[in-house]
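Field guide to reading this record: the first block holds the primary sequence, the second block holds the structure written as C-alpha cells, and the final block holds curator observations. Each block starts with its own label. This record concerns GTP-binding protein, catalogued under organism Pseudooceanicola spongiae.

BLOCK 1 — SEQUENCE
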Amino acid sequence: MSGRIPVTVLSGYLGSGKTTILNRALAGDHGVRLAVLVNDFGPVNIDAALIRASGERVVELSNGCVCCSIGDDLGETLSAIAAWEDPPERLILEASGVADPRRIAMAAGHWPGFTLDAVLVAVDAETVQARARDKFVGSLITAQLRSADLLVLTKGDLVGAGHPAQVRDWLGETCAGTGVVRADAGDLPLDLLFGISGHGTAVAPESHVHFSTALWQPEGPVDLDRLRALLEGLPPSVHRAKGGVHDAATGQGVLVQCVGRRVSLTLSPPDITGLVLISTGDAVTLEAVVVGLQAACV
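BLOCK 2 — STRUCTURE
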C-alpha cells in the first residue's frame, strides 16, 4: 500500500455498541494484523476468553490482535506503534463515547506513518433520537453523527419491527448523504472495516446478510479525475469501495478508498488491481455500478 498504516476511527455515544462491534471484529478470522487503541475514558471490555497475555500497555489477543490504552499523549502512542518491530497492517481507534471523532480522526489520520481510512459512528436505534433532543448531550450526539463517513445502526433487533427504518429516515434528514448500515449484535461485515485484506490483495466477493459485494477489474489504466467523479456519484447504497488501479497519466499504482462520502487516491504498489464494492442494494444494481466504472478507463 502507501507505506502508512490506515486508521479506522470507531465512535458513537455511550452504550451505542462500539465495544460489541469491536469484539466481533477481534474474534473474527480476518487475517489482518491489527492494533486497537482504546480511549482511556472508557476502556474496552474485551471478552476475557480472547485475551492471551497482558502487559502494562499492551494486550495480545488469541487471534494475533493487539490492544493498547491511549494515555494523555495520543501522538506518543501512535509513534510507538509505528516503531514496533512488527507494526500493524491496520489500526482501529475506539473513541470515548463523549469524544468528538473529528478531532481524533484529524490527529491520528495526519500523524506521521498513519493515514485516515474512515470514521464509523455507531448509532443506538433505541435511544439516539431521544438523546439527540437532550439539552445536555444533544449537540454532542449530532456532532458525532455528522462526523461519520458511515453510520452503523445497532440494536435494531431490540426495537419494534418498523423502528429501524424510521431511525434510518431520521438519520437521512440529520446527516444527508451519509450511508447507513445495520449491524444487529455488532455484526458488521469486516469488509466495511477493512475493505482490503491485510495481504494487499482485493477481498473476494462474498455473500453476507443484507449486503452484496462485487469486484471491478478495470479494462486498462484509468483517468483519476474521471474515476473520482464516478466514485463521488455512487448511489447511497454503496458503502465502501477499495482496491487499486493504474494511473493512465503516470503509469503508477494508485490505492483507491471510498467510504461514504470520503474518496481518497494515494500511491500504492502496482500489483494491487481491482476495486471491491460493498452495497446494501441488490446484486443487479451493484453490477450496473461496476459496469459504469469502466468509463474511467482510457
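BLOCK 3 — OBSERVATIONS
The chain is about 25% helix and 30% strand.
Confidence is low (pLDDT under 50) at residues 40-62, 196-209.
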